[in-house]
Amino acid sequence: MLRGAVGVAGLLVAAELALRAGHVTLLPLVSTVLLRAAELTVDGEFLSAAASTLASWAAGLALTVAVGIPIGLLLGAMPKVEAVVRPLIEFLRPIPSVALIPLAILVFTEQLHLRAAIVIYAACWPVLINTIYGLKDVDPVAKETLRSFGFGPLAVLVRVSLPSAAPFIATGIRLAASVAIVLAVSVELVAGGTDGVGVYIIKAGGGGRTDLMIAATVLTGLFGLLVNVAFVAVERKVFRWRHAR
Length: 245
Fold this sequence. Notes:
single chain; mainly alpha; 11 helices
């Protein structure tokens, strides 16, 4: 973490010096952007916009987990069904989620539903794929041992498969959380609306406030970083045995 902080600080200092030297004239100073970012943390308009974006992010991520994990468990536990569905997954997964925004606008009238739908589509893939591969990685000897003692498929899933696949699933959720925040803001940038960080960025850019636009972007990236750090910390604590191997 210390080395990473030194690297970021070095980059910011280099950018500040380059801007002050006049090598780049269209962008505000790094110090100005950081000052505006600090001011936005107590700005009512920005906090309201951030709350709207975070509501879409949280709703989309929660539904992603509720949908992606059960489907992943089902496909992972039934290889023949997974083999049939795999071509469809591989066809849908590469489709850019942003390209689906115009179609989603026609389907969903509420902004929250629109953003949540796009977030679910984009963020569901890491959870789904990681869950499937997590079940495939389960030790077959452990499953056969439990079956030999008379345990049924559901008991094997709950007692062996799910605990073994849990680290993979947790990683999928962590990746989905980062994807979700990106898509939540992207929908606001493309579809517009009345609130959200993306709308705030558009208004700031339209008003010639490049410093506010970049500051809002920086804070969004900082939130994504903090979410990732929090998920990593939880993974290390909950799955301590996996990191100790």
